[in-house]
Amino acid sequence: MSNDTSPHEQAARHDPVYDRLAAEPEFLELRRRYRGFVIPATAVFLAWYLLYVALSTWASDFMAHRLFGNINVALVFGLLQFVTTFGIAYLYSRFSNARLDPLATTLNEDYETYMTSKDGR
Amino acid sequence: MDTQILTTVLFLSVVALTIGITVKASRSTSGTADFYAGGRSFSPLQNGLAIGGDYMSAASFLGITGIIALSGYDGFLYSIGFLVAWLVALLLVAEMLRNSGRFTMADQLAFRMRRKPVRLAAASSTVVVSIFYLLAQMVGAGTLVALLLGVESQAIKNIVIFGVGALMIFYVTVGGMKGTTYVQIVKAILLMTGSALIVVLVLAQFDFNLSTLLGAAADNSGKGQAFLEPGLKYGADLTSKLDFVSLGLALVLGTAGLPHILIRFYTVPTARDARKSVLWAIGLIGTFYLFTLVLGFGAAALLDTSTLDASGNLAAPRLAEAVGGGAGSTGGAILLALIAAVAFATILAVVAGLTLTSAASVAHDVYNNVIRKGEATEAEEIKVTRLAAGGIGLVAILLAIPAQSLNIAFLVALAFAVAASANLPTIMMNIFWRRFNTRGALFSIYGGLLSAVGLVFFSPTVSGTETSLITGMDFAWFPLNNPGLVSIPLGFLFGVIGTLSAREPAAEDRYTELEVRALTGAGSEKAISH
């Protein structure tokens, strides 16, 4: 592969401030927290959803079991998917407000300060 | 006849209202950030409503209600897939994209890859997905309006398709993202209040007891308890079961790769607002899909469903008529006309979003960044967007008119499958994998796109059965109608193979900025204050 990239071929190499920010302990902590939440959460809701799809497809007797009146397991299971979706969305919102946003704000302020001082020079 | 006049008047009111909004919005639109992203100044609630307005298509409102009314519980499975999908958007896509891009899906790739090829690839999949989706909505609009007005004339259907096409071109060229967003907000409010009203009226007939409603639906459907259980529609054999799993996968992974949804994340000031707007959207969309459960089973309980059309699209409007006092009553006529107008507003808002997204991608990615090498002025870029919106609108009209005779219900599922197989793998790998590079992106976009479209081409949807698009020929060797089960893993696999077969140190190096920006917002595009 050739390396003679014209100026328009690829975006300019980024400002060194990003290398500095990427090495900050706050950034490493932010990335650790973000991945620590979203990766398990995604695995859980995808597995939970696929379990629902699989049960609906292959476990019809179980899903047809009536709990009370005309309410059967399938309906409750389906409604639980709504509950978990709302629940995970709420938990993520609380988590990111408390644990992600403060770090992101600090790092973003570092960036703004740097850019202002650079422009001022 | 009175109903027809009333329906027509309400339709025209919806049209007049949306035109008024668009003209008003055009007065405060100047540069590209305004035109594509509404100045990035919408509030989270406004954007949440607009996302709902963009997402809840006539296929959801009329289609899911219809499937539940005809096939019972199996229709509910769609609602769940369409909702759970929003967690992918919330956790993995919305904030990252807002922080790292400007207007289109390609921006975030062009950050670190060779711009020209990745922009062309991203623009291709954007336009393909949008056209599939657009066609389905426009053909639906023609059929729907003709059914609702009680006319069976082909000329009327063609006029409706042409009218919808002309309106969407108008919204986009005149109002840009601001106009489109307000149309979507109005539609979301109309859809939510309209369906909430019908839900309350339905539940009132059953003393607000869900179990009684379900019992009545099961009895009236003639299928008994099986109507309330999964398997009526998708339980026949292993192939149809796998087909269902494949559909479920495409629904849950496709939403966060739909270009007209992605572009909405750019319309708010910060990533935090993008997150809040997705939270609003989840609340709104979740509530709406709970409504469809009551509407669908309500229609099954209160209507003679054997008189509905085969797809059940008329279940929701007929149900409105029934709970308003029945056919011939004033209340029935008013509610029928109201729900018909809501359905029409729904179609208009969705097609406007699709047209804007694909036109923006043609102008921003292809014209400005590939043809003009990033040197076009904002005014030139907007001019090209308007032209592209006209062109795409015209193509959609010209394709939609002959497509009416085909069964195009598969187009929406295909759009989701392409979004899940081509767009989502690329977005994910770009954000989470430093090693990912230009060749990987091209492989995953084109590979995912071609696998999804190709597998559908060789599926029973296109040939080999009585209901196929092409009858009399059989070249279907792929047994499933929904390609997702195979094409989504292929999209990821192609991306990995492409990436590992080339080294691109520049792309790996620039990942640092992408990741810092995506997580912290440092250097992200600011909102415009007028």
Radius of gyration of chain B: 23 Å
The global form of chain B is globular
* Rounded Rg of chain A: 24 Å
* Principal-axes shape call of chain A: elongated
Q: Give the mean pLDDT of chain B.
A: 89
**Residue ranges of chain A: pLDDT <50 for 5 or more in a row?**
1-7
Can you put this structure into words, describing what you see?
The complex is a heterodimer of chains A (121) and B (530). Chain A is mainly alpha-helical and 121 residues long. Chain A has one domain. Chain A is 78% helix and 4% strand. Chain A contains four helices and two strands. A two-stranded antiparallel sheet of chain A has the order 1-2. In chain A, helix 2 runs antiparallel to helix 4 (73-120). Chain B has 530 residues and is mainly α. Chain B contains 19 helices and no strands. Chain B has helices spanning 2-26, 32-37, 44-55, 58-71, 74-100, 105-110, 115-149, 154-205, 210-221, 238-254, 259-262, 271-302, 315-323, 330-371, 378-403, 410-432, 438-457, 484-500, 505-520. In chain B, helix 4 (58-71) packs antiparallel against helix 5, helix 8 (154-205) crosses helix 15 and helix 12 (271-302) packs across helix 13. Chain B is globular, with a radius of gyration of 23 Å. The termini of chain B are far apart. The model of chain B has no long low-confidence stretch (mean pLDDT 89).
Brief write-up:
Chain A has helices spanning 17-23, 25-58, 60-64, 73-120; strands at 66-68, 71-72.
Which structural traits does this protein have?
heterodimer, A: 121 residues, mainly alpha, 2 strands, disordered N terminus, B: 530 residues, 19 helices
What is the topological layout?
The complex is a heterodimer of chains A (121) and B (530).
Chain A: H1 17-23, H2 25-58, H3 60-64, E1 66-68, E2 71-72, H4 73-120
Antiparallel strand pairs in A: 1-2
Helix pairs in contact in A: 2-4
Chain B: H1 2-26, H2 32-37, H3 44-55, H4 58-71, H5 74-100, H6 105-110, H7 115-149, H8 154-205, H9 210-221, H10 238-254, H11 259-262, H12 271-302, H13 315-323, H14 330-371, H15 378-403, H16 410-432, H17 438-457, H18 484-500, H19 505-520
Helix pairs in contact in B: 1-8, 1-14, 3-8, 3-12, 4-5, 4-12, 5-10, 5-12, 5-19, 7-8, 7-14, 7-15, 7-16, 7-17, 8-12, 8-14, 8-15, 9-12, 10-16, 10-18, 12-13, 13-14, 14-15, 16-17, 16-18, 17-18
